[in-house]
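Submission checklist for the structure archive. All mandatory fields must be present; incomplete records are returned to the submitter.

[x] Identifier: Cytochrome P450
[x] Organism: Somion occarium
[x] Residue count: 512
[x] Sequence attached
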Amino acid sequence: MDSYPYYTAYVATVIIAVLLVCRRIRPQVYLSLPPGPRPWPIIGNLLDFPSAAPWTTFDRLGKTYGDVIHMRVMGHSVVVLMSVQAISDLLDKRSSIYSDRIRSIFLCDLVEAGWAMVLQGYTDSWRRSRRVFRQYFNRDVAPKFQEIQREETQAFLLRLHRSPDEVQGLVRHLFSSMIMRIMYGIKISEQNDPYVAIAEEVMKGFSEAGQPGRFYVDFIPFLRYIPTWFPGALFHKRAASLKPVFNAMVNKPFNVVKDSIVSGSTIPSVVLSMLEGIHDGTRREEDEMAVKSSAASAYAGGADTTRSAIQLFLLAMVLYPDVQRRAQAELQSIVGSNRMPAFADRPSLPYVQALILEILRWQPVAPLSMPHSTSSSDTYRGYYIPKGAIVIGNAWSILHDPQHYPNPFSFNPERFLKNGRLDSDVLSPTVVCFGFGRRICPGQFFALDSLYIIVSSILQLFDISHKIDECGQQIAVDVRLTSGLISSTEPFACSFKLRSAAAEALFSSLPD
């Protein structure tokens, strides 16, 4: 009888130990998932993934449920993060857990685009490709491309003056020209260049497929096996149309460089330097694939995101002429009338820099991050985040948070200035708009250089305004954006006019 209390204590200790182990192994038994809308049976929250501008829907849900919300789609957990704090805590500080990538069945299996860095998991192949890319586009190396950026920008200005009504296509051509010269040493043709068409079609495919819920096959894998004639199987036809274009994207310009090495007619380029740095050995094939992947990713992604930002800049200048005049006044005071802006002028042009930051914030071209995935389960703020959960950062919500940006829907570059200088206390959109954690865009410094030289050069020469119709009336312009992984402006009309006699003389001095 005397041993009974000891036996009871022993049993109680064992039970407590087992419960603690179970809690450690399966915390979901004790922790709830983050809050979110109530799911429907079977399909879960599939209907909460609208086909148009899902970032605004997520933002509205965030106002109800908080900055970390959970949804379930066909058995998959989806977690959307809508604050700098949540993204910093998870995607940045715990990037070892959140750096994996949800495998897109549509793009990887049906289109066979698994070579793209944005689609690869956190694997040796991805790390190799990213290391190669960063080697040539980091903060210290990016400035060596500035001469090509300047030359291509001035060529764009000449085309713009000749064909102002074709501005949308000319902007697309500009970035394709920059990327192709830098990456492959290829100078593209003035009109109807196949490389421009390939990049455009590929980015449409990426933007379309990268939007959560766009193709149900990514949530319901067995749909890949249904025949093409089956109702609702249009994704098969879309994949078939994209497959040869994606193949051309990764192989066609790369093979031009390889052939030039064989023929002895090489032109300096990043890909050439990358290939020359590869040593023969058992990993040569993997190293060449890393070069091919990083080059094609720059070819597609860099051209499309920066192009979208420039189109937003043009739209903003039409809608906010006072902002345009103030930026031009700053250029006049620093650069003068007799030369084009240079990269060395950038530190002395805080308003132009603030204007670029406001463009990136006002309507972010990548409103949602590419989906991340958890490689193991995690807990955050007392909530359970399961292994394999899809995790999405909502950049749009952060960049329209009134706590960071008062009156967030107004276009106001001055929000980034204090006493005539850039205000370091204001959250820079560059912290958000280029992605998060280990998945942050490695080409961000090249993109910012491109935006600066193009924006400042256009403002130096041209007044941008409403286009006048044949009846003498202004053609109305409003903010209408496309929906997808990359968000851009719908086509709009605007007018370009050389600002003054001094601008005409400066324009005439540009090399043809």
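[x] Structure attached
Curator remark: The chain has one domain: 31-508. The chain has a mean pLDDT of 84.
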